[in-house]
Design brief:
Order of helices and strands of chain B: HHHHHHHHHHHHHHHH
Number of strands of chain A: 2
Strand order of the largest sheet of chain A: 1-2
Largest interface: A-B, 10 and 7 residues
Helix content of chain A: 55-70%
Number of helices of chain A: 8
Shape of chain A: globular
Strand content of chain B: under 5%
Number of strands of chain B: 0
Distance between the termini of chain B: 52 Å
Structural class of chain B: mainly alpha
Distance between the termini of chain A: 28 Å
Largest sheet of chain B: none
Number of domains of chain A: 1
Oligomer: heterodimer
Order of helices and strands of chain A: HHHHHHHEEH
Number of helices of chain B: 16
Strand content of chain A: under 5%
Radius of gyration of chain A: 18 Å
Largest sheet of chain A: 2 strands, antiparallel
Radius of gyration of chain B: 22 Å
Structural class of chain A: mainly alpha
Chain lengths: 198, 345
């Protein structure tokens, strides 16, 4: 039962973006379209899965004092793999995401899971945890990306969904739109939580 | 009961002013500018003002009902926000634009922070910034804004742009002479000369621009009444306009330092509207003497930097928004010393 719980906690209850407010930099930066949100979500999920499993394997032999640099090296290895494969196979997406692919190294969700979970648990649970958190992050990015692309461009995945007379709210796909959207989405989830608590 | 004595706690002396009284007085002083805009730009200006005001009031009422708070739309603050927002858009905008702008101004600029008195930034200016970022084409095309009474000094360009647009384009030519032909340079300096000759039109308001910003004369009539009633102070408007005049004189010319035309810069764009009606908002500006002076000077510096060196021809709205954010700090830095108390650092 614990496996199911470790998986589902990342989806909503401890969602990295909505509940823990972690990894906001890529969340704000690349959520201006569904496509780049999906690409970033999958990339982070992959890195999280790999780094969680390796770190859960090595955490017993890593000296506590230098664990952070070692975790970062592990994470950076997988980010490099993602970066180079994306540049090779999906050059368009790689260009859109730009600097934010290498910046996955310093994404605090990944280091946070390494510290809080993979460094204390076995490989099985760590994989489940990484997968759950990665999917939770992807869901958050997709939600923001869908809202912002719909309002700011009148489309979904690049396909126009509004009639041609619709004049998009350009600000929503610009940086201020990211802050506005995440503010309202976080407010909505807090409101939901308060309502449930009553 | 003997009614001659009232026993109450301090304060014992208080002003008779209330929020509705102040708000409706400010609205009243904006009426001359509204009449001017209807005269210059036609009945469409009235529609835009009405739609913006109605949308602002409806948004505030709706959100207050949703938030289960007392509905306070009768205090006039939402109407004022709507009117000021309408004064900040071009007369040619589609009619849904002021409605959306007012909704954003009230919802995000004011109600999100807790309503009147809690907003860190001027809601009307925030609404304008939102509209400018979202629909830049609607917000910066003044083509339908051909003012009644013809063009200014015979420049055709003036009807399709604001004086500041023309100035910016002409200065661009003069500052980078190597990129342009001699004919273009001649044209540019001629345009600037004609602009500087049109100060009377600028003062009356027969120029292209946003609905409520063009007529310096009508705005000043309203502002003078507000100053007489002491609803707005002199510190922010005067330091603001003074700073813009000084810095425009120093940096505003194309022939080196001290060749700018300060009067042109003061009269054009939204400076008078901004300095007297937006930068004096009671909620979002400092309360101390020194704080207000710093606020006005800061607004002036940012305005001139944007006008002279920035990408936009006009910088009044952004300068006030930026200084709004500094208001809490200014109030803290300039906290007056308590009489007899120690100097606080």
């Amino acid at each position: 039962m614990s496996v199911v719980r470790e998986f589902t906690k990342g989806l909503y209850k401890q969602n990295p973006v909505f509940k823990q407010a972690l990894g906001l930099c890529p969340t704000l930066a690349v959520s201006n379209s569904v496509e780049s949100a999906l690409g970033m979500g999958v990339a982070v999920t992959f890195v999280l899965l790999c780094s969680n499993s390796i770190i859960s394997l090595i955490h017993k032999i890593v000296p506590a004092k230098i664990r952070i640099p070692i975790y970062i090296v592990v994470i950076a290895t997988f980010v490099t793999i993602v970066d180079l494969s994306m540049a090779g196979f999906l050059p368009a997406l790689h260009k859109t995401l730009g600097i934010f692919v290498p910046l996955i190294v310093v994404n605090c969700i990944i280091l946070g899971r390494a510290e809080a979970f993979a460094g204390k648990n076995g490989i099985g649970l760590s994989i489940v945890d990484g997968l759950g958190m990665g999917i939770g992050f992807t869901i958050a990015l997709l939600l923001l990306g869908t809202l912002r692309e719909f309002m700011g461009n009148g489309s979904f995945m690049g396909i126009p969904v509004m009639n041609p007379g619709f004049e998009p709210v350009l600000i929503m796909i610009l940086p201020p739109g990211a802050f506005l959207t995440i503010g309202f989405v976080l407010g909505f989830f807090n409101w939901l939580e308060n309502k449930r608590a009553k | 009961m003997d009614k001659k004595y009232f026993v109450s706690s301090s304060p014992h002396i208080y002003a008779q002013d209330s929020i509705p009284k102040i708000m409706y007085t400010v609205i009243l002083t904006l009426v001359p500018a509204a009449i001017g805009s209807i005269y210059f730009f036609g009945l469409r200006a009235l529609w835009i003002i009405a739609i913006a005001a109605v949308s602002a009031v409806a948004t505030e009422a709706l959100l207050q009902i949703m938030m289960k708070r007392p509905v306070t739309v009768y205090d006039g603050s939402a109407i004022l926000t709507g009117i000021l927002l309408a004064y900040n858009v071009a007369p040619s905008v589609p009619l849904w634009l002021p409605a959306v702008g007012s909704f954003f101004a009230i919802a995000v600029g004011k109600m999100v922070f807790g309503g009147l008195g809690h907003n860190p930034m001027n809601p009307a200016l925030l609404g304008r910034a939102f509209l400018l970022a979202s629909w830049p084409t609607h917000m910066t095309i003044f083509s339908a804004a051909v003012p009644k009474g013809g063009t200014v000094s015979g420049i055709d360009a003036i009807t399709t742009a604001t004086p500041l647009n023309v100035l910016k384009a002409a200065q661009e030519v003069l500052r980078h002479p190597q990129n342009f032909s001699p004919a273009q340079k001649m044209e540019a300096s001629e345009a600037i000369g004609q602009l500087y000759d049109s100060l009377r039109e600028l003062f009356i308001g027969r120029i292209g621009g946003c609905i409520g910003e063009t007529s310096t004369l009508l705005l000043l009539i309203g502002a003078a009444f507000l100053m007489y009633k002491r609803y707005i102070g002199w510190k922010i408007p005067f330091t603001y306009v003074g700073t813009v005049a000084l810095l425009s004189w120093i940096f505003g010319g194309a022939d080196g330092l001290f060749s700018g035309n300060p009067i042109f810069h003061v009269l054009s764009g939204g400076l008078i509207l901004g300095a007297f009606y937006m930068a004096t908002d009671m909620v979002t500006t400092p309360i101390t003497f020194a704080g207000r002076v710093y606020f006005g000077v800061g607004c002036g510096v940012i305005t001139v930097v944007i006008r002279q060196f920035g990408g936009y021809p006009e910088g009044v709205s952004y300068s006030i928004l930026l200084m709004n954010l500094l208001t809490p700090l200014l109030d803290r830095w300039t906290r007056p010393r308590v009489f007899g108390g120690k100097k606080t650092g």
